[in-house]
Amino acid sequence: MAETMTQDKVQQLIAALEQTPTNLHNGSFLITWRNPAEHIRAVLLVAEALQRLNRAGKSVRLFDTGLGISIFRDKSTRTRYSFRSACNMLGLMTEELDESTSQVSHGETVRETASMISFLSEVIGIRDDMFLGEGNRYQAEVAESVQESFEAGVLAQRPSVVNLQCDLDHPTQALADLRHLIDHYGGVENLRGKRIAMTWAYSPSYGKPLSVPQGIIGLMSRFGMDVSLAYPEGYDLVDEPVEAARRFATESGGKFEVVHSMAEAFKGADIVYPKSWAPMHVMQKRTELLRGGRAAELKELELAALAENARHKDWECTEEMMKHTRDGKALYCHCLPADITDVSCKEGEVSASVFERYRLDTYREAGHKPFVIAAMILLTRFADPAGTLRHLATRDMPRRLA
Amino acid sequence: MAETMTQDKVQQLIAALEQTPTNLHNGSFLITWRNPAEHIRAVLLVAEALQRLNRAGKSVRLFDTGLGISIFRDKSTRTRYSFRSACNMLGLMTEELDESTSQVSHGETVRETASMISFLSEVIGIRDDMFLGEGNRYQAEVAESVQESFEAGVLAQRPSVVNLQCDLDHPTQALADLRHLIDHYGGVENLRGKRIAMTWAYSPSYGKPLSVPQGIIGLMSRFGMDVSLAYPEGYDLVDEPVEAARRFATESGGKFEVVHSMAEAFKGADIVYPKSWAPMHVMQKRTELLRGGRAAELKELELAALAENARHKDWECTEEMMKHTRDGKALYCHCLPADITDVSCKEGEVSASVFERYRLDTYREAGHKPFVIAAMILLTRFADPAGTLRHLATRDMPRRLA
Amino acid sequence: MAETMTQDKVQQLIAALEQTPTNLHNGSFLITWRNPAEHIRAVLLVAEALQRLNRAGKSVRLFDTGLGISIFRDKSTRTRYSFRSACNMLGLMTEELDESTSQVSHGETVRETASMISFLSEVIGIRDDMFLGEGNRYQAEVAESVQESFEAGVLAQRPSVVNLQCDLDHPTQALADLRHLIDHYGGVENLRGKRIAMTWAYSPSYGKPLSVPQGIIGLMSRFGMDVSLAYPEGYDLVDEPVEAARRFATESGGKFEVVHSMAEAFKGADIVYPKSWAPMHVMQKRTELLRGGRAAELKELELAALAENARHKDWECTEEMMKHTRDGKALYCHCLPADITDVSCKEGEVSASVFERYRLDTYREAGHKPFVIAAMILLTRFADPAGTLRHLATRDMPRRLA
Questions:
Q1: What pLDDT, on a 0 to 100 scale, did the predictor assign at position B220?
Q2: B67 vs A85: CB contact, 8 Å cut-off?
Q3: CB contact under 8 A, A120 and C85
Q4: How far apart are CA C354 and CA C364, in angstroms?
Q5: What are phi and psi of C198, to 5 degrees?
Q6: Are B120 and A85 in contact (CB under 8 A)?
Q7: Which of A118, A256, B41, B58 has the fewest CB atoms in 10 Å of its CB?
Q8: How many angstroms separate the Cα of B182 from the Cα of each of A364, B387, C77, C394?
Q9: Contact status, residue A141 vs residue A71, Cβ threshold 8 Å
Q10: For residue B198, what is the enclosing H or E element?
Q11: Picking from A9-18, B350-359, C94-103, C324-333, which range would have the lowest pLDDT averaged per residue?
Q12: In the predicted structure, residue A215 carries a pLDDT above the cut 90
């Protein structure tokens, strides 16, 4: 019975996918707002289908052998394991390029390394979010390099490049968040008119990337939602995603606003996403100082940034603040780990009681990421994704062999 | 012919397993002496069956995809590779959580991390043996966390937690040692009445965990053996395993004694296990000082502990000492690496000539660990272990495909 | 059509392999010049067959489960990924022994560790090229240790040891280079009479291993080629490979010369391989000082070596230098990463324009390595390599399952 329901639902997802022409085969997935609506829709459909098949005990393995390479230029728990889980469920063995034990520092160029790790690779996942203006450029360079080597016949296949967070976007996070909202509201069509508050929040740390808020506004604005972006004066985001959000809101019949009050953004919100980030000008300065190796000035910058942050400690998602939301019961979202007041820090982004109430929800939210990444791999590596999914749904291959 | 013998023996093991009701499915394996006799017996039966099938060239793969996560908070060669080998033989890809490159230090709680690495995981193996009173607690917390997430539907499956050594027990070691004795004596029933000397031995290092001697006395006492625990005054073990050993000895018709002379323990011994450990009070003090970051006092403690150790250099397993054992030919056991006099140190736990005579035996002893760990995974992840084994034994799936 | 051509070609390779008796089963692959011609030929045939099957979309997986262990005592990108790719294509999960997190430093002997990581392992790949006189010895010791444990029944199978670069040879590199030349010239028989210039080149770094030039002259001299080894006075290689090259040249009807001018070596060359290495006497001194922990003298040695190097900056593969080669169009080879003037350093081994013209060729060259390593594993782990290949060629097992 449960299996029949899974099969019916998966067949519906496949049918919808057949109506969603994509151009992702032999390509990469880097920035959501530069991708057409069909690509976003396809990722959502495939991610859900894979998740349902997995829950039903079916193997979704698509490769007998092959590698998935990860490059993490910043710390990661969730995304690292999500990438590995995604590769594993599809049958790829993962390997992480550790730049400290490789010869990358030894005069090797990016384009050279890209090919050297790709001879039998199907996907390269990259996190590079530390320096404004660099992460996306690096990922694009890797993608161009494997494309060149593939076209020249050096590589037998063209590995996808998947953005596991850059300076601009965090697409696997934003799409996992979106999958969570779709599940929560029972369908993407039910997001229409829902108000989401993507707000800055206080944190005792400094230098957090801008990619999460940029990813959220650049994605959620495509579904007729009422997107409110809130931050203290000076904590502006990069122009491109803000302009994309404005355009998408108009096109989708939704709304997009920028305000400078957490309470105002929370007002009537169905969903809140309070999350710290660094002011863009701080990130720019930091990038410049780091490049120049100017340690003393970096320390000064950090102190100044922390002092500036500290002026906005009232940007905390407290029980009081939550009362502004629809019926006081907005869904709290976070990419984790959150800075929780009295738990992980003295004063942070969210109060302990609010976080605890939504804790398991944030785990559910995170649980979509492996399937979003797997969907990106499937869509970039298989020419007929609907046919591939149909094969997975109908073949007799359980995840457990006994 | 050889294959028929393997099949017959494996069928006997499966038949015995069917008579051994266990309650391990969807659980964990943390401390042997807190587990009923049936659980211990089941691990021994499954480990032997897996080893025999492997030696006969059969694949014992049970998962088409899935992850095994390891967390090592202390150095490891044997146990790390045993865990990886166990996962690999069952079809799981392994990943090690490296806390330095994850966001674990970044305000993340244990229970959060536990779920974040578990979305597609079947087992989490943990070594955490540095601080008295902490390792077992940490493992239990991870187990509770994945249990909570599984019950809430956040996780599609409930990963087992397997204790790869904590402050209290080292169950995969002790059970591998037991498998070695069973093989050596031709059956668990032949252990009855055998005398085993679990003794302290001198080492020029300090701070070695207590979990091996505790694991040995807490396990070997369950089989009617004559267990002699020997150590210099002051090198006491934790109460719980000592009390368990005393109780088990009574219940199983064996003996348990604590003496303060290596020669006395060796007297008439069939098996000797000379191995250094730190006095409990040193470990407690060390934990306290480490927590307080009191470096100067730590150095003092180390010097005092080494000086105390040095008073007991006569606790060495020499040829002379071996003469006290039954016919001078007791089986020498060690968890490795041993501190071998004139090989790995100037003065150590065992003389070079004794060690060399038993060197390949200690390798055999170590060789049981992958199968013990695999048995724990099988028993915790499969509801009908005997049926699962029967499937492995009868299906036509070789380890090599050509 | 393409598939039929692949099948025909692979059948020819298998037929040739059947005429090539080898003695590699249950052995290791350490030094090319100590192996008979049949072993070299077999590696070339198997590597090409595996590459063709892979390009044709066939899975070459031979193991259902099993481990491949790597030990890197020096940095690596290409070889590390090649080893992992080789293991993955054959169905082995790879694990890297990280000596800093293992107990190797903790009194563990090489022979003990070798067995501890081998209980379910099929291959151990080792890079140990830092100290002259040590790497090969270490690899041989590991091989002897697993042999002893296999013979004693401690190990159920005898893992191969594969030399991923030692102080003497870099066989997976040299054989990948040879596969590249065979592809480039359309057959090993077409190498006869071709002139190859293996020359020293200037680099602003110091302490590069001698194993690549030694591997090249010790291998290329076996196929009737005209091998010219060129280096500034004082940059001598180890005797053994030089003597082997001289002997092989005579036996194969080729030539071998040592000259002290890059231009002279390049004269009429079909292939050039300009690559920096350290003078042998510097490597010997360095090994001695490193062992003695003599930091100040090490710094002096480095400065002296760099100053000596700097006297030979004219040993650069420039456009001008290339004009000496046959029609000015010799094939440029390099093991990568190259020290490229104005790209990875101010003055280096090769000018930017020469390198750029051959850049994709050097990637192709590198792309052979995974298949060379896989061939070594297949030949050492399977008793009937031709039969094994025939099975791979005829079974219906695609690399992608959908």
A1: 98
A2: yes
A3: yes
A4: 16
A5: -95, 105
A6: yes
A7: B41
A8: 46, 24, 45, 45
A9: no
A10: strand B195-199
A11: C94-103
A12: yes
DSSP B96-157: E--TTTSSTTTT--HHHHHHHT-TTEEEEEEEE-SSTTTHHHHHHHHHHHHHHHHHTTSSSS
Residue pLDDT, tens place only, B74-118:
888 899 999 999 999 999 999 999 877 766 655 568 899 999 999
Residue B2: the pLDDT is 67
Only one residue has tokens 């029972």, namely A186
The ipTM is: 0.96
Q: Which residues pair with A257 in a beta bridge?
A: A228
| A186-366: CATH architecture | 3-Layer(aba) Sandwich (3.40)
Q: Are A269 and A261 in contact (CB under 8 A)?
A: no
Average the pLDDT over each of A233-247, A383-397, C96-110, C292-306 and give the range with the smallest value: C96-110
> With 80 as the cut, is the pLDDT of residue B195 above it?
yes
Q: Does C62 touch chain B (CB under 8 A)?
A: yes
The two structure tokens encoding residue A381: 């590596």
pLDDT at B3 over 90: no
Question: Homologous superfamily of A2-169+367-394 in CATH?
Answer: Aspartate/ornithine carbamoyltransferase (3.40.50.1370)
Chain B contacts of A55, Cβ < 8 Å? 156
Cβ-Cβ contacts under 8 Å, B113 against chain A = 77
Write phi, then psi, for C386 (nearest 5 degrees): -65, -45
Predicted pLDDT of residue B107: 55
**Residue C205 CA to its chain's centroid (Å):** 21
What is the number of alpha carbons within 13 Å of residue B151 lying toward its C-beta?
Answer: 7
- pLDDT of A137 strictly over 80: yes
How far is it, in rounded angstroms, from Cα B175 to Cα B46?
A: 12
Rounded to whole angstroms, the Cα distance separating C119 from B78 reads 10
Tell me whether residues A77 and B91 touch, CB distance under 8 A.
no
CA A59, CA B357: separation in Å to the nearest integer? 49
DSSP helix/strand/coil, B197: strand
* Alpha carbons B165 and C103: distance in angstroms, whole number: 15
Q: From CA B367, how far away is CA B382, in angstroms rounded?
A: 24
Interface residue of A54, A72, A84 to substitute, partner B, most B CBs within 10 Å: A84
Name the residue ranges covered by the structural domains of chain C: 2-169+368-394, 174-366
Of C58, C62, C12, C119, whose CA–CA distance to C379 is shortest?
Answer: C62
CA A306-A312-A314 angle, to 5 degrees, is 135
Mean pLDDT of A169-188: 98
Residue A327 φ/ψ, nearest 5 degrees: 55, 20
Residue of A nearest to C89 (CA): A65
From the candidates B112, B113, B399, which should be mutated to test the interface with A, based on the most A CB atoms within 10 A?
Answer: B112
Q: How many CB atoms lie within 10 A of CB A290?
A: 14
* A140 touches C: beta carbon within 8 Å: no
Q: For A104-131, write each residue's pLDDT tens digit.
A: 655 568 899 999 999 999 999 999 988 8
Query: Among A50, A63, A110, A112, which would you mutate to test the C interface (most chain C Cβ atoms within 10 Å of its Cβ)?
Result: A112
- Work out the number of other CB atoms within 10 angstroms of the CB of residue A19: 10
Give C67's contacts in chain B (Cβ within 8 Å): 81, 84-85, 88
Question: Given the structure tokens 């059948």, which residue do they identify?
Answer: C11
Residue C6, both tokens: 């692949």
Measure the CA–CA gap between B28 and B25, rounded to whole angstroms. 8
The superfamily (CATH) of domain C174-366 is Aspartate/ornithine carbamoyltransferase (3.40.50.1370)
CATH superfamily of C2-169+368-394: Aspartate/ornithine carbamoyltransferase (3.40.50.1370)
How many residues make up chain B in this entry? Answer: 402
